[in-house]
Amino acid sequence: MNFLAKIVAHKLKESEALFTPEATARFQAAIAARPPALSLKAALDAAPAPAIIAEIKRASPSKGEFARHWDPVELALIYQDNGAAALSVLTEVQYFKGDPEFIPRMRPVINIPILRKDFILEPVQVYETAALGADALLLIVHLLESSKLRALLMLTRSERRSPSHRHQFPGPENL
């Protein structure tokens, strides 16, 4: 099994924990309470060229750990204060030493879009992403069959419009 396949297998196993009534209830409550998502496209369009998406990343499988002891919220504030148009937050735990909880910790003090960077393979992870407070997510095309990619794209695009016309993720009513 190649390394990428190992990560995907691990992520699929990990995502099984999201398919519970308790998780669905948590997602519904968090999504209902969250403010409208910020538009990543609008933030990039409005930024002076070049628009910067700054990455919060503690490790990589090929390079090992390189930033394990810093506070991700503090780093996010530094990036925001120095002109980043958006943040890319690695949330994969096992191989990249990220944490999904980085996003809800950042959201109260960060006013630029937050992109969740992880191995999103299942629709339930889209709802988890919205519940965490992320404004966007990364879909790795190489990892997804075309039908799954289309389904995930349709789900992420089925957002409702709020009065301020900013995008908002859908609720998990159909989990």
Which terms summarize this structure?
175 residues, alpha/beta, TIM Barrel, four-stranded parallel sheet, two-stranded antiparallel sheet, 7 helices, 40% helix, disordered C terminus
CATH topology value = TIM Barrel
User: In CATH, what is the homologous superfamily?
Assistant: Aldolase class I
**How many separate domains make up the residues?**
1
- How does the major sheet shape up? 4 strands, parallel
Percentage of β-strand residues: 5-15%
Number of strands: 8
Report mean pLDDT, rounded to a whole number: 88
Q: Please tally the helical runs, counting DSSP H or I stretches of 4 or more residues.
A: 7
SSE sequence, one letter per element: HHHEEEHEHEHEHEE
Strand arrangement within the widest β-sheet reads 1-4-5-6
| CATH class (first level) name | Alpha Beta
Helix content: 40-55%
Q: Tell me which CATH architecture applies here.
A: Alpha-Beta Barrel
What low-confidence regions span 5 or more consecutive residues with pLDDT below 50? 160-175
Shape: globular
Structural class: alpha/beta
Through-space gap between termini: 31 Å
Describe the structure.
With 175 residues, the chain is an alpha/beta fold. The chain has one domain (3-168): TIM Barrel. The protein has seven helices and eight strands; from the N terminus they run αααβββαβαβαβαββ. A four-stranded parallel beta sheet has the order 1-4-5-6. A two-stranded antiparallel sheet has the order 2-3. A two-stranded antiparallel sheet has the order 7-8. Strand 7 and strand 8 form a beta hairpin. Helix 2 crosses helix 6 (123-132). It starts with a helix and ends in a 7-residue tail after the last strand. 29% of the residues are buried. Residues 160-175 have low confidence and may be disordered.
